[in-house]
Amino acid sequence: MRKFYVAVALSTLLFYLAAYPTALLQQSDNFLYDLYKRIATVVAPSQLGEPATMIVEIDDKSLEALGQWPWPRVLTAKLLEQIGTYKPAAIAADVIFPENDRTSPRELVRFYRDYFGLSVQIGGLPEWLYDNDTLLADTISDLPLLLPLYLKNRWDSNDTACFKDTGYRIDAEGVDTLYTGVGLLCNIPALQRQSRSTGFINAREDRDGIFRRMPLVMRLQHKPVAALAVAMLLTSGRFPAEMRLADSPLGLRTTLGDRTFYTDAHTNVLLRFYPPDTYRRISAVDLLQGRVDPADIRGKYVLVGATAVGLHDRYTVAPDEVLPGIFMHATLIENFFNGDLISQPGVFPPVNMVLSFLSALATLILFRRKRYLSIIFFFGAVTLFYSAAAVTALTQSLYIAPGYFLTPLAVSFIIMALAIAVKGYTQRKQFYEQLSHSHQAALDSMALVAETRDMETGAHIIRTKNYVRLLAMAMARQGSYREILSDTYIEQLFHTAPLHDIGKVGIPDHILKKPGRLTPEEFETMKLHTTYGKEMLDNAINSYRDNEMLRVARNIAYGHHEKWNGSGYPQGLSGEAIPLEARLMALADVYDALISRRYYKEPFSFEETEAIIVEGRGSHFDPQIVDVFLALKEEFRRIAERHQ
User: Fold this and answer.
1) Residue 471: enclosing H or E segment and its boundaries?
2) 226-254: buried (b, 16+ CB within 10 Å) or exposed (e) per residue?
3) Please, are residues 261 and 341 in contact by the beta-carbon 8 Å criterion?
4) Which of 13, 116, 161, 351 has its CA 20 to 30 A from that of 400?
5) Residue 84: closest CA among 403, 346, 297
6) d(CA 184, CA 34)
7) In the predicted model, what is the mean pLDDT of the chain?
């Protein structure tokens, strides 16, 4: 057993080494995060202050009023200019303009000339309205506007043309675990160069399709770049335009302004989303038409982005909640100011895995000592402890990754329980097999005692039990006696057939071993061996209730001298009133007696024996059993010859 538990311990160690890190483990941790976050939200709701952000929505209402998206950039310029008049802290457009505006009058003239050979003139416009991109670039230059980037894994030769100085500094010296892009998707250079700063908008859902986290910093080739929302904070003038990243035992220590928190190695933070109606938002068309209180924008971080359903910029943030992408950036800023940004120090997953492994070993020790109640208590206690710790930590904006403790512990617990159950089953099976063998040996010994007194040999026992099994199996294949001839019944028949003459131990030797024909009185005494056998086996049945094998043995011992026509003994039963096992034994016993040498006769030939059996069809023997015997007579001969 010691080797078994050592093997289980090593298997558990291999399981933990293989499980970390895997997507399945991450998924289970995400599931627990969603669960505990909901509990934490109920236990300690966020204390929301005055919103720091304003979302300017390119919504269905604006599209209906202003036409399809993208709008002519002259309109976008007007929208941004209008926002700028309200003195926001920073503006960010969650929109990339990677190509020139084809709706510019100058671009329209060029289009008709190049593709249709037409000389189209557009007159009556002031010169500054002929190029929408130049107009938008001029507008941007006067605003605290940030334009986004999207970092790609593929590099194009003109990718760096649109990149400009970010206007902030990120100290990530020695941190080599940031997500890295080698190429860019960005705005046309004329626009990008006029923006105050820039930030990336890369973000994606977890494997289960739910958006939970986003990185704060990525690296473009060798230069660190902030997320768009972080870039707004860094360039708003309210904080030093510097962010510091440093490895630490707790994970990646991130300092922004006066806030320091820990993230995983990729600077991912978990967002705490608020109910949609708690975000400040205004439709773009309302803003363009002046239907806005300037105080709602003054000093705010204004985010311009699509919320119209048809623009497909939406993320699932919970199983029953979907938000437009612009809300991701707004949530990061609101979380930052409300202290709700959830840190996930990278140290927790590996530490939890180690603690989980040690707990699994403790569980294994309890298994070995058969302290099953202690196991249940231990497992319940650590689950409750970790759950309470996770909820408490979340109320303090810290996620301790309990999935890396609880999930592998639960899986290892199941594996251990199964392994130990299989081991126990195997041991119990071996025990019952040994017990069954001992039982069979005892039955054979009892039979031998009876047969030895009758001057017969152990070969008779072997032959007769093989005959009855052969007959029973053939009848089962024919579909006869379906309710009786189960595999278990045939096995019991095989093992109990040797007890058919056990009652002979009660017959006096001068009758049992008489070398001649018995007198009528002696024969009446001899017939009592069936009753003696029944009484012996009834005593055993009374001592071991519900023992089907003993009941089969009793029927054989008591009924194997009954005859089909009712002329047998001891009860004179006839037909199917005689138990099936007794009818089978009757033929097998007579067959073996005829072909065997006895002190009072010479053996009959197989042909003579078979003729006698056939002659007894319907009188001595069950006709159906005789028919089956005739089909198997060659098998009977082989059994007789094999066990002489």
Assistant:
1) helix 458-478
2) bbbbbbbbbbbeebebebbbeeeeebbbb
3) yes
4) 13
5) 297
6) 33
7) 90
d(CA 92, CA 36): 33
Mention every residue, 6+ apart, whose C-beta is less than 8 A from residue 605. 595
pLDDT of 384 reads 94
C-alpha to C-alpha distances, 74 to 79, 188, 228, 242, nearest whole angstrom: 9, 15, 24, 34
- b vs e for 467-483, b when ≥16 Cβ sit within 10 Å of the residue's Cβ? bbbbbbbbbbeeeeeee
Pairwise CA distance, residues 77 & 140, whole Å: 8
- CB 489, CB 479: distance < 8 Å: no
Burial of residue 314 (number of CB atoms within 10 Å: 0-12, 13-18, 19+): middle
- In the chain, count of helices (H) and strands (E)? 21, 18
Distance from the Cα of residue 165 to its chain's centroid: 49
Looking only at the bridges linking them, the beta strands covering 281-283 and 268-270 are unpaired
Tokens encoding 101 = 């505006």
Largest separation between any pair of C-alpha atoms in the chain: 146
Q: What is the DSSP letter of 232?
A: H
Distance of CA 337 to the CA centre of its chain: 39
In this structure, are strands 268-270 and 213-215 parallel, antiparallel, or unpaired? Answer: antiparallel
Length of the chain measured in residues? 644
Selection from 230, 225, 235, 170 nearest residue 197 by Cα: 235
Q: In this structure, is the dihedral angle defined by the CA atoms of residues 374, 377, 379 and 385, taken in order, positive or negative?
A: negative
Tens digits of per-residue pLDDT, 278-300?
999 999 999 999 999 999 999 99
Q: Please give the DSSP secondary-structure letter assigned to residue 620.
A: T
**For residue 570, cis peptide bond before it (omega within 30 degrees of 0):** yes
CA distance 256 to 332: 13
Query: Contact, 241 vs 232, CB < 8 A?
Result: no
Closest CA to 447 of 503, 507, 510: 503
- The Cα 356–Cα 273 span in angstroms is 30
Q: Are strands 197-200 and 259-263 parallel, antiparallel or unpaired?
A: unpaired
Residue type, position 324, single letter? P
Asked whether the beta carbons of 41 and 425 are under 8 A apart, the reply is no
pLDDT tens track for 3-37: 888 888 888 899 898 888 788 899 999 999 999 99
| CB contact at 8 A, 224 and 170 | yes
**Residue 453 CA to its chain's centroid (Å):** 66
Please say if the pLDDT value at position 381 is more than 90: yes
Q: What are 73-126's pLDDT values in tens digits? A: 999 999 999 999 999 999 999 999 999 999 999 989 999 999 999 988 888 888
To 5 degrees, how large is the angle CA 550–CA 551–CA 552?
Answer: 90
Interval 177-185 mean pLDDT? 89
Give the list of residues 6+ apart from residue 62 with CB closer than 8 angstroms, or none: 283, 284, 285, 308
In eight-state DSSP terms, residue 346 is T
> For the chain, how are helix, strand and coil distributed in percent, rounded to 5?
55, 15, 30
Six-digit token pair at 241? Answer: 């335009």
If you search the block for the tokens 């209008």, which residue do you land on?
A: 82
Alpha carbons 67 and 292: distance in angstroms, whole number: 21
Residue range 250-262: average pLDDT? 88
